[in-house]
Design a protein that fits this description.
By secondary structure, this protein is an alpha+beta fold. It has one helix and three strands; from the N terminus they run E-E-E-H. A hairpin with a 5-residue loop joins strand 1 and strand 2. It is globular. The relative contact order is 0.20.
């Protein structure tokens, strides 16, 4: 099974997303968004950015 994005409303009334691996471990968390729609668009942006992304080591 592939990982999944979960979109939810936090205690402050903002919308967030988290990316969970197939084993249930949270591997990434998004920022706070004002609307559910914006949070969903955030997940789409992460999917687009990750497609073919390379891993680069940096300092700090």
């Amino acid at each position: 099974m592939a990982g999944k994005f979960e979109v939810y409303e936090d205690k402050g009334g903002k919308f967030r997303f988290r990316l969970k691996a197939s084993n249930g471990q949270v591997v990434a968390v998004g920022e706070a968004y004002e609307t559910l729609s914006a949070a969903k668009k955030g997940t789409e942006a992460v999917q687009r950015a990750a497609d073919g992304a390379t891993v680069v080591e940096t300092e700090g």
